[in-house]
Amino acid sequence: MPYKIDPFTRTPGIAGNAYIDMKYADTIIANFESEESYKYVYKIVGLRGSGKSVEYSKIIKHFREKAHHKNWLVYTLSSANNPIEALISFLSREKFIDDKKRSTTISSNGSVSGKLLLAEGNAEVGISKHTEENDRYYSQEVILEEMIKKANEKGFHILIGIDDIAKTPQMVQFLSIFGKMLLDGDKKLYLVCTGIAKNIEDVANEASLTFFKRSDQLEIKGLDKYEVADMYMKLLGVSQEQAAEFSKFVKGYAYAYQVLGTLYFQKTEKETFENILPAFDKILFRDSYELIWQSLTEAEKQLVKLIVQSETGKVADIKNKMEKPANYNMLKERIDKKHILSDSERGYVRIDLPRFKEFVELWG
Questions:
Q1: Distance between CA 42 and CA 336 in Å, rounded?
Q2: Which of 60, 111, 273, 315 is least enclosed, having the fewest CB within 10 Å?
Q3: Considering Cα of 253, then 259, then 262, then 266, what sign does the dihedral take?
């Protein structure tokens, strides 16, 4: 009997055959490719597990696949390392960069150790004053700008991707240089990044990064319930009624959609939905909800508890249970920025995350 391959996945940035297109990536791709668009930077924000990295990956894949006939150079950078050094290293590998710089250590008698131009080992060489000055005034910013200018002159557009961006001194320095190059107005340079609200806001509030703060931001919303049900029918072979129940259960939360799908796909014939629920809770609680909970302040946690425990969801009822009702609007706005609250009708508030109430009651 052939082994059945699970079409669902929990790997960040990968949706596999269970991918549900939310069209966010299409918006960014269309603007970057259009000669009429003046949008060069996009921030993709949303709750952990909402599908940010999947949309990001679609954008990166699209431009990489078009690299050979559309003249796009695509580089993905990490927040954990030095993005300036990484981008210079990537660019230095391109064939059109033919004046790569070699680092050298020069002693007083003119002996060189390591590598100088094409010479390796130790050798006596003549070092001119001009070369010494170039070493002394070496600037990563200047080198990077010259490389990007050369790439543009060769007809290349450059797309830089940063998944799960975080504020570091190196990242601030890199984005400051990026913003300066955008203001020069003659660079075909683009940036797409993802991040949770707090990390994006930390970077955007840096005084030197006004361009980043004002750049376009797309918030990832929940998956369409009908698309989720249709995919469950297609990939799990369940009835329309059961697929609808599964869709209502995951409430459009992308990570829950994948987790439930893979657990149900892997269950034995004798197991029921109730049998896989403990495993579902364990994965969601550990991988997602614990991180969401840690991102809240104590005051925010208290309000979240009241919201999930409310039987009506009425703001008036929730305020009546608060120690300081006057703080409701301020706390609600802060929680809303973290993408935890769902769109509600006026006078009501709710959190549409599957089993989140159970998590709060057990671990909150």
A1: 21
A2: 111
A3: negative
Phi, psi of 310 (to 5 degrees): -70, 130
Give the closest residue to 46 by CA, choosing from 161, 163, 178.
163
Question: Is there a contact between 284 and 315 (Cβ–Cβ < 8 Å)?
Answer: no
Read off the tokens for 305: 């508890």
Kindly provide the residue ranges of all beta strands, DSSP E only, lying in 201-357, ordered along the sequence: 216-219
Look at 134 and 178; give whichever has higher pLDDT: 178
Query: In this predicted model, which residue has the larger pLDDT, 115 or 42?
Result: 42
Listed in sequence order, the residues at least 6 apart from 102 whose beta carbon sits closer than 8 Å to its beta carbon are 115, 116, 117
Got the DSSP string for 152-212?
A: HHTT-EEEEEESS----HHHHHHHHHHHHHHHHS---EEEEEEE-HHHHHHHHTSTT-HHH
Structure tokens that stand for 276 in this block? 């896989």
pTM of the predicted model as reported, rounded to 2 decimal places = 0.85
pLDDT for 133 equals 44
**What is the 3-class SS of 70-128, one letter each residue?**
HCEEEEEECCCCCHHHHHHHHHHCCCCCCCCCCCCEECCCCEEECEECCEECCEECCCC
Give me the mean pLDDT over the 339-364 stretch. Answer: 92
Q: What is the pLDDT of residue 14?
A: 86
CA angle 358, 244, 351 (to 5 degrees): 35
The owner of tokens 């006004």 is 210
Tokens of 283: 């994965």
Give the mean model confidence (pLDDT) for residues 6-30.
Answer: 92
- The answer on pLDDT for 129 being more than 60 is no
